[in-house]
Amino acid sequence: PQARILVSACLLGRPVRYNGSAKTLAHDLLARWQTEERIVPTCPELEAGFSTPRPPAEIQNAQSGDDVLSGQAHVVEDTGRNVTALYERGARSALATALQHGCRFALLTDGSPSCGSRFIYDGAFAGRRHHGQGVTAALLRQHGIAVFAESEIERLRDLLP
Ligand code: SF4
């Protein structure tokens, strides 16, 4: 069977982001992989129980979702609400989906406190990004799943068996 790829639902055109938008990735590879039935969609935040739209959230005082998973950092909405437990739940749900479908690769929306894999925002809600990864990307990588940002789709193609 073809290698399956876990993909952020907003990259597939679903309007599930916090602000009600999608982040549609118009790329021939995505269309091809859909035809080949390789794509397994996930939106960790919706799976955690959030609705759309929702307040923006950022990881505070850490560059990696690993620190959230180990209890050393939190995910907080711009309202001040601590949503760490929900972000962890979303990450576990995405991991369960990946394992269930045998996905060893993921293509996730960069910058998100869940799906970011190369950069995230710094927790001050000032639009400042830094190198880092979100909670779902961290948990997937802890379980040996290779996570790529949408900007790396061609690198993922080159690595796919
Ligand atoms: Fe997209 Fe991931 Fe945010 Fe869901 S959690 S809207 S899939 S970036």
UniProtKB/TrEMBL annotation:
Classify the source by domain of life: Bacteria
Query: One Pfam family of this protein, by short name?
Result: 2-thiour_desulf
UniProt protein name: Uncharacterized protein
Which species is listed as the source? Answer: Tanticharoenia sakaeratensis NBRC 103193
